[in-house]
Design a protein that fits this description.
Layout: H1 6-17, E1 19-21, E2 29-40, H2 55-66, H3 73-77, H4 97-103, E3 104-105, E4 111-112, H5 114-124, E5 132-134, E6 150-158, E7 161-172, H6 176-195, E8 198-212, H7 216-223, E9 232-235, E10 250-253
Parallel strand pairs: 7-8
Antiparallel strand pairs: 1-2, 2-8, 3-4, 5-6, 6-7, 9-10
Helix pairs in contact: 1-7, 2-6
Protein name: Thymidylate synthase
Subunit structure: Homodimer.
InterPro entries: Thymidate_synth/dCMP_Mease, Thymidate_synth/dCMP_Mease_dom, Thymidate_synth/dCMP_Mease_sf, Thymidylate_synthase, Thymidylate_synthase_AS
Length: about 270
């Protein structure tokens, strides 16, 4: 049986040993710098079980990134509200994740589709050590509603399995991180399917890992719960490309979480 408590162990460590640190939002945090978790995607899908996650928001947000979108209209059409606080009156967020993934503006005027390129490289040059995607476009960060938190990821192929490591510079452990782990694990499974590989490990690496001061009660409740086994992800068909997946293609089976826990988000 695989351990399914990596996230809770991480949360407990930061809750017990984090340093008091003020932050941009004025909320205040308990924070540790530098942490890593590893999830073997062969052994289950790392959806946090100690609270119920809104998987609909996670799937739609990932499909929205893959569209190369910078407006929350797609999310709204699908009743996902997680980006509302950061959008302007037209629903725009500036050149955020999706834009950099799909059409990074190069100095010579080209627009680079990093997702298509990295998939092509995984298929044709799997030993490459350059299988990277970056959302941190230094020249555009100040035009974004929020500079990317999950900012850089790298793929790795060995023995027919595709692994992915994410670097996340800033990590809201209670609200953001469960979404981020699930989202990149899902992306890894999708890209593996497209490339005829099995999913390997998802490695999560965090920079400023923090628990907001107004999440302490929620964290105590969550840490009092025993983690349960992870669910399994079923992808019901193999679409023609990474851009053709639909919400209905995904199903999590045997997801048996504890009840949801509400918390305010720091804006
Ligand atoms: N402070 C902060 N934390 C974040 O995690 C975060 C940001 N800001 N800004 C940008 C995005 C938006 N993300 C969000 C935003 C909201 C939820 C949230 O409210 N989650 C609730 C309800 C989910 C839902 O209704 O879909 C949860 O209980 O998980 C999660 C991630 C992640 N990011
Ligand atoms: O995917 C995400 C997006 C955002 N966050 C969190 C991390 C921080 O708490 C805030 C961003 O504030 P900064 O001052 O820009 O660091 O949002 C996350 O955990 N995951």
């Amino acid at each position: 049986m695989m351990k399914s408590n990596q996230y809770e162990t991480f949360m407990k460590d930061v809750y017990e040993h984090g340093l008091s640190k003020s932050d941009r939002t004025g909320t205040g945090t308990r924070s540790l710098f530098g942490y890593q978790m590893r999830f073997n995607l062969q052994e289950g899908f790392p959806l946090v079980t100690t609270k119920k996650l809104h998987t609909r928001s996670i799937i739609h947000e990932l499909l929205w990134f893959l569209r190369g979108d910078s407006n929350i209209k797609y999310l709204h059409d699908n009743k996902v509200t997680i980006w509302d606080e950061w959008a302007d009156e037209n629903g725009d967020l500036g050149p955020v994740y999706g834009v950099q993934w799909r059409s990074w503006p190069a100095a010579d005027g080209r627009h680079i589709d990093q997702i298509s390129n990295v998939i092509e490289q995984i298929k044709t040059n799997p030993d490459s050590r350059r299988l990277v995607v970056s959302a941190w476009n230094v020249g555009e960060v100040d035009k974004m509603a929020l500079p990317p938190c999950h900012m850089f990821f790298q793929f790795y192929v060995a023995e027919g399995r595709l692994s992915c490591q994410l670097y996340q510079r800033s990590c809201d452990i209670f609200l953001g991180v469960p979404f981020n782990i699930a989202s990149y694990s899902l992306l890894t499974c999708m890209i593996a399917q497209q490339c005829g590989l099995e999913p390997g490990d998802f490695v999560w690496t965090g920079g400023d890992c923090h628990i907001y001061n107004n999440h302490f009660e929620q964290v105590e409740l969550q840490l009092s719960r025993e983690p349960r086994p992870y669910p399994k992800l079923i992808i019901k068909r193999k679409p023609d490309s990474i851009f053709d997946y639909k919400f209905e293609d995904f199903e999590f089976i045997d997801y048996d979480p504890w009840p949801a826990i509400k918390a305010p988000i720091a804006v």
